[in-house]
Design a protein that fits this description.
This protein is α/β, with parallel strands linked by helices and 404 residues long. It has 2 domains: 142 residues, Aspartate Aminotransferase, domain 1 (Alpha-Beta Complex), CATH 3.90.1150.10; 246 residues, Type I PLP-dependent aspartate aminotransferase-like (Major domain) (Aspartate Aminotransferase, domain 2), CATH 3.40.640. It has 14 helices and 12 strands. The strands form 3 sheets. It has a 7-stranded mixed β-sheet, with helices on both faces. A 3-stranded antiparallel β-sheet has the order 9-10-12. A two-stranded parallel ribbon has the order 1-11. Strand 6, helix 7 and strand 7 form a beta-alpha-beta unit. Helix 10 packs across helix 13. It starts with a strand and ends in an 8-residue tail after the last helix.
């Protein structure tokens, strides 16, 4: 049985070149980067090199990069850190309805603590409107948090335009207003320029960039006030206590370097294969709906709903044939509720429950896509035969020609 991995939005395989870079720091180069002796300074130098590479990936200064455990911690530190440090100016936060669960979760927690959170709609195309951000701004708004690219449908949000809006407000005297963007899915899959975006905080995660899990980063623009969430040490300029995970940080730096150098090639490769895949799906399967704007999105991702098919059932069926996909965010795996992201597009429960995320990687091949296009139609048809609603639709002659 052939095995095909199409869940690169959940995590990516570690690049052998990244493994090679980190291995010495798992063996002979074991020092603590806070130590003043040779071993410590060797580790410190490696962390500093990695910091420069991660900064270069997003056009930032090295001293604006804070190393953390991943994207979830980065989102928590950014949102809660700004909210707490700016509480004297207001307790109002703006976000969107399609943020990652880590952003949704910390916003929910802030509400329980007396903050107000405005969650902006995204409409059928899955894109936030800048005018909605403008309308939601209040004198007591301290933070706008809108992700750069969605992790389930891949839609790219107008963060640069929102950044310009925030800059306008600051020019009018609202110096405390900050902009955060979750760029975990975007980095390495599109150009990410913190200066062009105009953001004050930006979240990253290494394991989306062919590096190991357990390490990420938060870009914090100079002069941005931030209440630390991990206390007990001076590491990371006092913004995140705890000994740095040197091997993982070294790996992150090498992965960031490769992602920057190979960005054009990776984008062209995944976009070409994704378009080939979607054309094949449209030609072979009826009753499919593509979710989100098909132009303004990441190049590697396709989210498809199949009418009269439960997404979990299709995922399991494909897995039995060697194809790994997802029904949505890996951080929401096991939830029985329809995807809130798909529901935010205005889809009904049937389409929300029948959505599948296919996410390609830099090493995905055309032969692998051909195999998926061979097994997918059979899997969909087999599941539809078991659906009473599908049988009723066929008996009524309703047809399944809609492709969205």
């Amino acid at each position: 049985m052939q095995r095909v991995y199409l869940d690169n939005s959940a995590t990516t395989p570690v690049d052998p070149r990244v493994v090679e870079a980190m291995l010495p720091f798992l063996t002979e180069k074991f020092g603590n980067p806070s130590s003043v002796h040779f071993y410590g300074q060797e580790a410190r130098a490696a962390v500093d090199r990695a910091r420069r590479e991660v900064a270069a990936l997003i056009n930032a200064r090295p001293n604006e990069i804070v190393f953390l455990s991943g994207g979830t911690e980065a989102n928590n530190l950014a949102i809660r850190g700004v909210a707490e440090s700016s509480a004297e100016h207001g307790r109002h936060v703006i976000t969107s309805q399609i943020e990652h669960s880590s952003t949704r979760g910390v916003c929910d927690q802030l509400e329980r603590r007396g903050y107000e959170v405005a969650r902006l709609p995204v409409y059928e195309d899955g894109v936030v409107r800048v005018e909605d951000v403008r309308a939601a701004l209040r004198p007591d708004t301290v933070l706008v948090s809108v992700m750069l690219a969605n992790n389930e449908i891949g839609t790219v949000q107008p963060v640069a335009e929102i950044g310009a809006l925030v800059a306008e407000e600051r020019a009018r005297g609202r110096k405390h207003l900050k902009l955060h963007t979750d760029a975990v899915q975007a980095a390495g899959r599109m150009t990410v320029d913190a200066q062009a975006l105009g953001c004050d905080l930006l979240s990253l995660s290494a394991h989306k960039l062919n590096a190991p899990k357990g390490v990420g980063a938060l870009y914090v623009r100079r002069s941005t006030r931030l209440s630390p969430q991990s206390i007990g040490g001076h590491q990371e300029r006092g913004r995140r206590a705890g000994t740095e995970a040197v091997p993982s940080i070294v790996a992150f730096g090498r992965a960031a370097q490769l992602a920057r150098e190979e960005l054009g090639e990776r984008v062209a490769h995944t976009r070409s294969l994704r378009d080939y895949f979607e054309s094949g799906v449209e030609a072979r399967v009826s009753g499919v709906v593509f979710n989100g704007d098909r132009a303004r999105r990441l190049p590697h991702l396709s989210n498809v709903s199949f009418r009269f098919v439960e997404g979990e059932g299709l995922l399991i069926n494909l897995d039995m044939q060697g194809v790994a996909v997802s029904t949505g965010s890996a951080c929401s795996s096991g939830s029985l509720e329809p995807s809130p992201v798909i529901r935010a597009l205005g889809r009904d429960d049937e389409l929300a429950r029948g959505s599948i995320r296919f996410s390609l990687g830099k090493d995905t091949t055309r032969e692998e896509i051909d195999y998926v296009l061979e097994v997918l139609p059979r899997a969909v048809e087999n599941l539809r035969r078991l659906s009473p609603l599908y049988q009723k639709a066929n008996a009524g002659g309703w047809g399944l020609g809609v492709r969205g």
